[in-house]
Amino acid sequence: MDAKTGLVVALGVFTAFYVVVFAIGLREAAREQPGVLTPTLSGLVVGFFTNFFDTLGIGSYAPTTSAFRFWRMVRDEQIPGTLNVGHTLPTIVEAFIFITAIIVDPKTLIALIAAAVIGAWLGAGVVAKMSRRAIQIGMGIALMVGAALFALKNVDAVRAVPVFPGGDAIGLSGTLLIVGIAGAIILGALMTLGIGFYAPCMIMVALLGMNAKTAFPIMMGACAFLMPVASARFVRLKKFDVKAAVGLCIGGIPAVLLAALFVKALPLVYVRWGVVGVVLYAGVGLLRTAARERAAAGS
Fold first, then answer.
1. Which of 21, 119, 257, 280 ranks highest by number of CB atoms within 10 Å?
2. Comparing C-alpha atoms, which of 195, 236, 238, 259 is closest to residue 56?
3. pLDDT per residue as tens digits for the range 176-225
């Protein structure tokens, strides 16, 4: 068995583990609140569109957070868990497609995925125990960072000389590999708070001199392994919105297949600028809400 085949087999094991954990969590939720497993139309629509553009490289966390805030679909303190739980299975489908389709050094791929999983395990334990206000502030800052990364990605798309030009390498070694592992641990931890893995991973890969295409199996593979680990903790602690998570999952899987197998690529510059505006709006809203609730508690 070669390294890539072993990775696919391991992903299958992780998927089976997560499906069992998710099913148990849904069964317990249905017992406590009958009808909670029936997704809303808005949840299905958000799941479809965020995962469709996620597959094409936009990312799903910041747009989903913005949608949840705009339509008041999920309580602020439950957004991080809902993002992780709801997007896990669609992301796993993405990973199976991209890990087998794009060439990347197996040693680098496995090392960065393992590092991201460690970061997510540590991060989920912290985020699941954070207060509502701390989560609001954390997600507000996360969305601001996400908007800046989207803007940088767009600048790269329109400039003759990209801000992050990257290179032709398909793998890392020595000091660069150590730096990549450290970066993946940090990005994995931050993802559990709502900072999407995709944009910062693409920038990290470029700064380390790797080919931009190698970012897709790295970031999707990392997310597919780290999200079941993080989501299992959110499910166990019941720190997610069940109805919204089910909507993201059911709406997201067909969107991934449509984008990856049929659409494959779109001119996304204008979509990203739209996302920047929406994400900034949501980030400012979260920070203002946290400030307002703090003032109310102190009065």
1. 119
2. 259
3. 999 999 999 988 888 877 777 877 888 788 888 888 778 888 888 888 88
What gap in Å lies between CA 36 and CA 30, rounded to an integer?
6
Query: Dihedral of the CA atoms 283, 289, 291, 297 (nearest 10)?
Result: -160
For residue 81, what are its two tokens?
Answer: 């868990």
The DSSP string of 233-294 is HHHHTT-S-HHHHHHHHHHHHHHHHHIIIII-----HHHHHHHHHHHHHHHHHHHHHHHHHH
Cα separation values, 206 from 58, 165, 202, 215, Å: 16, 6, 6, 8
Rounded distance between C-alpha atoms, residue 116 and residue 108, angstroms:
12
Q: At what angle do helices 198-207 and 215-236 cross, to 10 degrees?
A: 140
What is the phi/psi pair of residue 78, to 5°? -100, -5
- List the domain boundaries for the chain: 3-298
Residues 251, 86: Cα–Cα separation, whole Å: 10
Closest to 109 in 3D by CA, of 253, 265, 213, 18: 213
CB 128 within 8 A of CB 234: yes
pLDDT digits (tens, 9 = 90+) for 237-281: 899 999 999 999 999 999 999 998 888 777 766 777 777 777 787
Q: What sign for the dihedral angle of Cα 189, 192, 193, 197?
A: positive
Distance, first Cα to last Cα, the chain? 64
